[in-house]
From TrEMBL:
Pfam family, one: Cons_hypoth698
Protein name (record): Putative integral membrane protein (TIGR00698 family)
One Gene Ontology CC term in the entry: plasma membrane
Keyword annotations: Cell membrane, Membrane, Transmembrane, Transmembrane helix
Membrane keyword on record: yes
TM segment ranges: 12-31, 52-70, 76-97, 104-122, 134-154, 197-218, 230-250, 256-275, 287-308
Species per Swiss-Prot/TrEMBL record: Rhizobium loti (Mesorhizobium loti)
Localization of this protein: Cell membrane
Origin: domain of life: Bacteria
Membrane topology: Multi-pass membrane protein
The keyword Membrane belongs to this UniProt entry's keyword annotation: yes
Amino acid sequence: MITAVAFSARNVSGFALFSPMILAVVAGMIYSNVLGTPAHAKAGIAFSQRRLLRFAIVLLGFQLTLGQVVSIGAGGVGIVAATLGATFVFTIMLGRLIGVDAKLAQLIAAGTSICGASAIVATNIVTDARDEDVTYAVASITLFGTIAMLGFPLMAPMLGLDQHAFGLWAGASIHEVAQVIGAGFQNGTQSGEIATVAKLTRVAMLAPMVVALGLMARRKSGDQTAARPPMPWFVAAFVAVVALNSLVTVPAEVKSAMALATTIMLTMGLAAMGLQADISQLRSRGLRPLALAFSAFLFIGCFSLMLVKFV
């Protein structure tokens, strides 16, 4: 069932603005809420939500090298890091102020500030939010990331951004990797290349962010081992893969295969989450989480633009 939903989403995605991961969530939600999820599928859903998603995060490491990070310069890395940190803190604080559940706010913060659905999945391994919260976060992040992908290139001339500046802005602020690539190359080849590197630099910051969230969770729970920062195995493996990809020349065919495997695993994992989602529970969350995601979207766009233009 999960495989059918995932591959249907992948085939349809070629004709849509949305990635197969997003379409898989929607397809899974429609299937489960219209037809119902059979009991015999539960084990496969659980496997896809946990094992496959963790392996997918590890394989993301094949898309990044330390040399790519260095190529945008210390200033570019600083802009990416400052934007990520400020957006995450802003989203958490605003979520607390307007009464959004803390775990859902963390998922929205991670998805906005780091790398969309992949960051939401990785963060949830630490935060352990409800499946409905994960689905809500993915849906809201996708909505505003798509708006950014379509709208930001139109704003470049009005804002006086050259290709380098626009690429850095897009990479530092747009949510999903695919959305960044789409927006960046729409404004030119140089812009696309810089946007991609800036975005992958954000992806590299996923590992320390997950570790920091795990440490915060331990301290909040009063765990006696809180002084020892947690290192989930998939985070350590992600760092190791990035290091390997930086030190060894991995054949292009292998990288292409890893990218395809990553997309398939993420798609299957998110299809499983969609199959677990109860639309009535999503409605019960109300509009506050959506308002939070919108506010985070505005903040990351404005904050990163300010840094790109004036720093």
